[in-house]
Amino acid sequence: MxxxxxxxxxxxxxxxxxxxxxxNPIRGVSRxxxxxxxxxxxxxxxxxxxxxxxxxxxxxxxxxGASFWQKGREGAPDGPIVEVDDVLEALQTLASAYLRETGAxxxxxxxxxxxxxxxxxxxxxxxxxxxxHKTQGNFNNHLGLPLTLLGMPENSEIVVLxxxxxxxxxxxxxxxxxxxxxxxxxxxxxxxxxxLGSRENIARAKxxxxxxxxxxxxxxxxxxxxxxHAVLGELEPTLPQGLRTFTFGxxxxxxxxxxxxxxxxxxxxxxxxxxxETTFTLPVLGSHNxxxxxxxxxxxxxLGVGAEEMHAGLIAMRLTGMRIERxxxxxxxxxxxxxxxxxxxxARAAIDVLAGMKGYDSKTLVLGDMLELGEREIEYHREVGxxxxxAGIDAVYAYGPLxxxxxxxxxxxxxxxxxxxxxxKQAMIRELSGSLGPSDAVLVKASRGMKxxxxxxxxxxxxxxxxxxx
Length: 470
What we know:
Blueprint: E1 2-4, H1 5-12, E2 15-16, E3 25-27, E4 29-30, E5 41-42, H2 56-61, E6 66-70, E7 81-84, H3 87-102, E8 105-110, H4 115-126, E9 132-134, H5 144-150, E10 158-162, H6 170-177, E11 182-185, H7 193-196, H8 199-206, H9 208-211, E12 218-222, H10 226-235, E13 244-248, E14 258-263, E15 268-272, E16 279-282, H11 287-302, H12 307-315, E17 325-328, E18 334-338, H13 344-355, E19 362-368, H14 377-391, E20 395-399, H15 403-410, E21 419-422, H16 425-435, E22 440-445, H17 453-461
Parallel strand pairs: 4-5, 5-6, 6-7, 8-10, 8-11, 9-10, 11-12, 12-13, 18-22, 19-20, 19-22, 20-21
Antiparallel strand pairs: 1-3, 2-7, 14-15, 15-16, 17-18
């Protein structure tokens, strides 16, 4: 964003305390006084232990072009200050106004699993034809989304926004800030059951994106999930005028589905009902990622991207890390790093990927706790462990108190020696390093709070068996 300070004040509904600063240039926004760009707007947000207003004077001295200041607070420094009723709301209002002024179209993406991967796919497909901006990392909430918008180049034609939530009303807010021209719901899983209580409520929360879409927009959703159909029926009176729908999935009853699919060494190849005989190559494993690709292709098709461009875009796709990321350790071990997040739905999908890999002496699952699952968390973990054994996984290593239940489920179908439980991460790493060889494959899957990427890094760097380290 590049605007004068006077214009920034108008866009966010604030008041410029010193009118002499109205023509000051503002370039970008920052909430961190430690990493300021010259002439940026500093946003003094409050945190659990700190109030950003304490850093306003230092930010201005450090090169910030201006700062917001909460109305009613004493001690505002002299100079380029925009007084606002609420700092966070002013940031959101500014972002929404900037989006409108750029004229960029919005693709909004939500779902229990696959949001980030689908975002990366949509970006890669659209990038073949348009100037596109996208959510970086996990900037997908009430703070991250407006910061994403304000970091968007002025000439962007499309912005691809991941919209996350932990409760009802949160996606509704995000869709008000950035109403989607195209909205995608990847699926409805079990994440956030702890706060929302039921999968029906999760579906209601996710489908707030549909209610917030632009009139005449397109809603793309997973046709294999009956809850979405049911909740859309509930929401019909609140849906925007002329909202169109498009379904994708593995089932032939959807508007688009795979007509052929094969898992190869480094990814998937597939054909799709809507694209006839064109064969697409996807550099990521799993049938669930083929359905994510179908959702991305539907969005790209809506915005004018053709089959040849989609083919090129999927091949060139760059995925955010730790989402079934295929790695090779120093020993030759094949590692699937899926340690960014976990739920029963995504765990089963990742297990299917490991089970479908050919030519390995053994396939090992390292499973950490799946968090925020509510009162049925023990049952969900036990079911995932049982699923791993039935899928043909050779060994299960379970880390964490909840994953002990997954080990119990795995023991129903696997020998006792093939299932291990750990409360000490380093002890588990030592066991894995000593037992896995170059002809083996291991999947590491857990919720982010378990930090099992530490296991991935250790296995990547582990020396081949028999070599002595210094």
